[in-house]
Amino acid sequence: MRSLFFLAFASAWNRRTTLGLMAISIALSVMLLLGVEQLRTQARESFSQSISGTDLVVGARTSPIQLMLYAVFRLGDATHNIRWSSYQTLSQHPSVSWAVPISLGDSHRGFAVIGTTTDYFEYFRYADRRLLAFSSGKPFADIFDAVVGADVAQQLGYQLGDSIILNHGAGGMGLSDHADKPFKVSGILKRTGLSVDRSVHISLEAIEAIHLDWQGGAPMPGLSIPAEYVRKFDLVPKEITAIFIGLKSRAGVFQMQRYINQYKTEPLLAVLPGVALDELWSIVSIVERSLLAISVLVVGVGLSGLVAVVLAGLGERRRELAVLRSVGAGPGVVFMLLAIEGLMVVVLGSLMGLLGLMVLSVFAAPILETHLGISLATWTLSAESWQLLLTVMVTGFLVSLIPGYRAYRISLADGLTPRL
Amino acid sequence: MSQTVIDIQNLIFQWPGREGFRLSIPHFQVDRGERVFLQGASGSGKSTLLSLLGGVLVPQQGQLQVLNTDLMTMSSSERDRFRVDHVGLLFQQFNLVPYLSVRENVILPCRFSQRRRGKALESANSLEQSADRLLGQLGLDPTYSQQRVTSLSVGQQQRVAAARALMGHPELIIADEPTSSLDADRQSEFLDVLLGRCNEEGVTLIFVSHDQRLAHHFNRSINLNELCSFNAGSV
């Protein structure tokens, strides 16, 4: 057996250029396959890490997916708000440990503005129960303080103390703004890879204040309340968009969910973030599965290239095979030689692909994290990736049996003298 | 052990599916230690006979025994094994595996045959030593043994091939025109060393060539046309 491997290796080394190129092409396809699989897993993980430690997300009655989209991902708009009194009731419920209200609807140059309380920075967790952290500054203290996410600060070049103006609605389209009540940046958050990075956080009272002189989505004509007078008004919000709730004990989560869904005063919806995220992912997964299918095809192309190259080379190797036959290599040995050669190229290609991907991911990780919010920081191969890699190698070995069989036929037909 | 190495009686071989192509040998016997010159032009059934002796082809009728072993009752893999264990083969050219060193080429039969490996190690400490010694006996300096065979001249390559055929002491060597790609001087030199080795090791040699001039080197010379009737097909 040892001499078989020696012979196969020596023969392959003799044709190292061609086989090396084949190994590279397999390496590239394996890189693509594992890369896609890795991105897929990481994207899914980042996705499911967008909220953690929150037991229930509560909003106006709508579909669970929509509630998640606007409350967690800041995608789309809420169709309804919920009453402040509902928040007060829920936050005082005996099984509730904490409840953070959020109010959405305004924006700042394309970034979502979220009205909340300072509890948000204390209780909102993501990934492995990580808390939001400040890279500079502190939570909002004054009414016109704002805390901006990492992307907002970076893209708009904001620093502590900068003055910013909020837009009403989704903004950016020359719609009316809140120019009469500018905000001051009081804090900048560290990067999270979540929608938080693209949000501007202000207090609920501030949301109330900038809308004091508004009605029905437009400034009231003839009425303008200057910023310095807003503190004289009652700034307790009347409505909010959603509530993040943490329970004292996770065991009571279904009971609490039922209680909220059957809330008498107004129609509410409570969703378990994990369950809703899974539902949401099942929609997104069509894309990721197509990507995976494409990369599987690319691997198929790589492997059939290998078979074609080895088969094409057999004609030139008839003499070599006949010589081996005359010194005692049976057709079975010739078959094994070819199979081993294929296996060597596939294993080499796969390992090169794996290594290439690791090197690439070291360079790509910061870029992906910044632009896509996908964290590749902890680079470990998932069990599925190992399975894929193993499948590629086994398939590669199996397709190598095709040229092996052809060589077997040739050496049977040629006997000891090649017919050229 | 009987002295008969090859024993053929009333052998008839036909290529399957090809009517008219037919080789028949009424009687042919070679004793141990004989060095037989088989003379025959190309197309006289030479390669077919060698394939029969090498166990690659099997006759349809008659008796074919090599070293008292009936090749006709063996399976194809048994014949493969028998060939590598007992027969050294030597061809006209392109005998060597281009990507192996001279020494590795000589050792090759021992990679496939435990028997020849064992025999080679009887008189040497290692296969490499055995190979180098054989190369030396065939007039090749040991400095060549690490080189690639492609850097050798044709004459040198044939000596390497001869060393490989002799490696591990096979009982029978079948040589098919091994000198036809050499010039006259080299032919004589090559034959001298080959026959010398066979003589010393008591190896039986079947040497096939179209060149009648070489016949005087051998102790027995046979014309293929006298040995067998061969019909290449109706033309």
Helix-strand blueprint:
The complex is a heterodimer of chains A (420) and B (235).
Chain A: H1 2-14, H2 16-48, E1 56-60, H3 64-71, E2 82-83, H4 84-91, E3 96-102, E4 107-108, E5 111-116, H5 119-123, E6 125-126, E7 130-131, E8 134-137, E9 145-148, H6 150-156, E10 163-164, E11 183-189, E12 199-203, H7 204-210, E13 214-215, E14 218-219, E15 239-240, E16 242-247, H8 253-261, E17 268-271, H9 273-314, H10 318-326, H11 331-371, H12 383-414
Parallel strand pairs in A: 5-12, 9-11
Antiparallel strand pairs in A: 1-16, 1-17, 2-15, 3-16, 4-5, 6-7, 8-11, 9-12, 10-11, 13-14
Chain B: E1 4-14, E2 21-31, E3 35-39, H1 46-53, E4 61-66, E5 69-70, H2 76-86, E6 87-90, H3 102-112, H4 114-122, H5 127-137, H6 154-166, E7 172-176, H7 184-201, E8 204-209, E9 220-223, H8 224-227, E10 229-232
Parallel strand pairs in B: 3-8, 3-9, 6-7, 7-8
Antiparallel strand pairs in B: 1-2, 1-4, 2-10, 4-5
Query: What's the main sheet of chain B like?
Result: 5 strands, antiparallel
Helix content of chain A: 40-55%
Oligomer: heterodimer
Question: Spans of chain A with pLDDT under 50 lasting ≥5 residues?
Answer: none
User: What characteristic shape of chain B results from the CA principal axes?
Assistant: globular
Protein chains sharing the most extensive interface = A-B, 22 and 28 residues
Radius of gyration of chain A: 31 Å
SSE topology string of chain A: HHEHEHEEEHEEEEHEEEHEEEEHEHHHH
Gyration radius of chain B, rounded? 18 Å
Quantity of strands of chain A, as a count: 17
